[in-house]
Amino acid sequence: LVLVLTGDGVTTEGVSTPGVKPYESLDLAKVERIEITDDDGETAIIVKVPGEGEAAEPSWSLASVGGFPVRESKPKEVVDKLRDLVLGRILTRKANRLTGLEVSDERFARHIVVKGSGERVLADCYIGEGASWDRIHFRKGDEDIAYAATGISTFDFGTDASSWVETQFTDYDPAQVNALTLTRGEETLAFERKTRVKEKTEAPKDGEPKDTEPKDEEPKDAEPGENPEEEQFWVVVQPEDQAGTELDKGKMDSLV
Predict the structure, then answer these.
(1) Hey, which bits of 106-178 come out as E strands?
(2) Which of 6, 15, 60, 173 is the 20 to 30 Å CA partner of 150?
């Protein structure tokens, strides 16, 4: 038995087979569920949603936060990162040393579980912070052996919703939207875009003072498809007691 002091400041008890990738064969097509728990106890649960129809591709949802759609590329990124994981030196084979390496059942930086059909576990591991962002401590969930490892970091496995959810649900041209309805419970807000003829400024009559103040802004050309003699504006449709109220066009265009 050879004892070696590594750069992580921990005593090793041997050497694993160099370059071993424990999850190299992990296949996204067989993954049905991904669970990631962080050191604060927050858990992200991502589940595969079957597509509608025989030829439809499946999608993913964030089951832990209301079932919001997950970005299409994100599950593949997680699986690819696990496939890239490379084991190095064995740090310990003793269960009582796992806590100090942040890979015990009670203390860890990340606990990652990947499941297939029928709840079959495809990957179960604990990750602890290493000496640098690209060096970690690693333990399989069913073993008491902790390794130094490379290829991934805890930053690759976020648990907050912003790490997963798809923020763009539709693809449309905002200029083509002429009505907008927002509903929450029994409350409804409805808005409508309208068009009106621009007011023309008449030239001053003889004897009237002329406006000699310099203009702050140069006149702007009409947008493509717009009539330079007309302007658009937004009004409230619902609630009825506010119907017809004109709204700030800039804010409404940003909302759309």
Answers:
(1) 110-115, 121-129, 135-140, 146-150
(2) 60
pLDDT above 70 for 88: yes
What is the distance between the alpha carbons of residues 28 and 115, in angstroms, rounded to a whole number?
10
Beta strands in the chain (DSSP E): 4-5, 11-12, 14-15, 33-38, 43-49, 59-62, 68-69, 86-92, 110-115, 121-129, 135-140, 146-150, 179-184, 187-197, 230-238, 246-247
Torsion of CA 114, 105, 23, 160, to 10 degrees: 50
Q: How many residues appear in the chain?
A: 256
Taking all residues of the chain, what is their mean pLDDT, rounded to a whole number? 82
Task: Return the ∠ at Cα 112 (arms to 107 and 113), rounded to 5°.
Answer: 125
